[in-house]
Amino acid sequence: MMLIARDKTSPLSRLKGSKAGLKILDGAVSAAPQNGRIRLLRGRAAYRLPEKYFHRAHTVIEDYTFLIDQKMHEEGFLETNNYLKLIYELGEVYCRIGRNQAAIMCWRRLTNETQDSDFLHLLKLKLKSLEGKPAVEHIPNTESPTSILIRKAVRAAGSELLSWAEQQKKEETPRNRLNQKGRR
């Protein structure tokens, strides 16, 4: 569902499809919380969603931490590159939500686990970008209160218009049938 939603042209269709897909993945994790494949699927899907709209950073943290802590790499579940990618992305998520110290810990851990010079250079840049920042910082919502109110008002008006249009469609269908029968 989420892959289909990704290719939709309407933002509302994307949102609805993504939320439906997340609901299914959440149900799957609830049904099998120890299943690494489901955790990996949900974590990767949530990682790619914008935090501003979906607020799924904690889902990513939960799933990635589970996979890393369960030593899925050692069991052969994750290849080395995928395992390192999980740790890197976990650092990215921590950074997105202002948990700088946790991000630093992830990226420092990676500097000890890789020999790739390009990757090490990237990690040094990431670590340098967090120098001097507090361990935890509040990441403000970039929307102004006015834009939030306007967005909510537009959403409410849109929902009402959709409900009205659906009601009109339901009422019109029986009239069309009666008109067609009367013409015959």
Description:
Residues 165-184 are annotated as: Disordered. The chain is an all-alpha fold. 17% of the residues are buried. It has two domains: 2-129, Serine Threonine Protein Phosphatase 5, Tetratricopeptide repeat; 143-184. It has nine helices and no strands.
Strand content: under 5%
- Global geometry: elongated
DSSP, total strands: 0
CATH C-level label of the largest domain = Mainly Alpha
Specify the CATH homologous superfamily of the largest domain: Tetratricopeptide repeat domain
In DSSP terms (H or I, runs of 4 or more residues), the helix count works out at 9
Alpha carbon gap, first and last residue: 44 Å
Structural class label: mainly alpha
Q: How large is the radius of gyration?
A: 23 Å
What characterizes the major β-sheet?
none
Mean pLDDT: 86
Using the coordinates shown, work out and report the CATH topology of the largest domain. Serine Threonine Protein Phosphatase 5, Tetratricopeptide repeat
Succession of helices and strands: HHHHHHHHH
Uncertain spans: none
The share of residues in helices is over 70%
Count of individual domains: 2
Region (Disordered): 165-184
